[in-house]
Design a protein that fits this description.
Distance between the termini: 29 Å
Largest sheet: 7 strands, mixed
Radius of gyration: 22 Å
Helix content: 10-25%
Oligomer: single chain
Number of helices: 7
Order of helices and strands: EHEHEEEEEHEHEHEHEEEEEEEH
Length: about 300
């Protein structure tokens, strides 16, 4: 749907969705099919958009992140969802509705779905962008399968990497080496890896080697550790600046947002999906959360 004059008149939307990842798009598709007034704020470039291989999404044997999202966006628009391609600056709770501030305008809505996801924080290894998402992965749950039967190097800055190495050997490949970056393994973890037949190295990785295919990792002391694939450390930062100042309940670390079963936060009417909330945030899980939130919102709108 093209932007219409109704977006300029202070119309009260039934729901505003922030973020066009799998969760936000699925919520839009459900709500649009219910013929509700829905506005989606879309800023491209999320983690799903950068995914090269999604192979565990029901009904799709394999799909890239861009293909999944572009198809989903077109599907949402086909059900009358309006789309604004601007950044949301703030969400406010006002008397009887939410106010969403973006690009100098204020949009009003009965419900808000925050589905803006997170951004990757990756290791500063030379040449990493060349292999990221192809042979360098940061999530065992998402991409462990792609290491099956290959020579794997697990890189981590904590002992959690030792446990991850054991899990990777149990599920995906027998050829596993653990690189402890910047620390020495406690004896009990060194013994665990030895018992499991997992190689172990200590050092500081500096550069990924290879042109088209990954061939190994060069350490700061000049040693080269051969490998075909890497499960490396990484982190995320939440795309939630627009929620700053809202009294949202957080987890014990003050990081993720706590939600009820339907995805509603501690603020009535504000639902949270995907990486912003506690739990796993794979594409298929976020999509299910989007459907669940949309159904809950629909029952409240028509007071079923």
């Amino acid at each position: 749907m093209e932007r219409t004059d109704s977006l300029e008149t202070g119309e009260l939307f039934d729901c505003i969705v922030v973020g066009a990842g799998p969760g936000g798009l699925q919520a839009c598709i459900h709500l649009g099919r219910y013929n509700f007034r829905v506005l989606l704020f879309h800023r491209p470039g999320g983690r799903t958009y950068h995914a090269k291989h999604i192979e565990n999404y029901l009904g799709l044997r394999a799909v890239s992140g861009p293909d999944l999202l572009e198809t989903g966006l077109a599907q949402a628009e086909s059900f009358g969802v309006a789309v604004e391609r601007v950044k949301v600056e703030r969400v406010e709770v006002r008397e009887g509705h939410f106010a969403v501030l973006a690009a100098g305008k204020t949009y009003r809505s009965r419900f808000v779905i925050a589905a803006s996801g997170a951004r990757e924080s990756i290791a500063p290894f030379k040449n990493l962008p060349r292999f990221f998402g192809i042979s360098y992965f940061t999530c065992m749950i998402c991409d462990g399968y792609r290491t099956t039967g290959k020579k794997l190097l697990v890189i981590d800055r904590t002992i959690n990497g030792a446990r991850m190495s054991v899990g990777m050997k149990q599920m995906f490949t027998k050829d596993v080496t653990f690189l402890a970056q910047g620390f020495s393994l406690p004896p009990q973890y060194a013994a665990l890896l030895d018992e499991e037949g997992i190689g172990r190295v200590e050092g500081r990785p500096e550069e990924l080697l290879g042109e088209k295919n990954l061939e190994g990792v060069r350490l700061a002391d000049g040693r080269v550790i051969p490998c075909e694939v890497i499960l490396g450390w990484g982190g995320i930062s939440l795309n939630e600046e627009y929620l700053e100042g809202l009294p949202l309940e957080r987890d014990t670390e003050g990081f993720k947002i706590v939600t009820k079963g339907s995805g509603e936060s501690s603020i009535p009417g504000l639902f949270v999906l995907g990486a912003l909330r506690q739990g796993h945030s794979q594409a298929i899980i976020s999509a299910g959360q989007g459907a669940e939130a949309a159904i809950e919102i629909s029952t409240r709108i028509v007071e079923l």
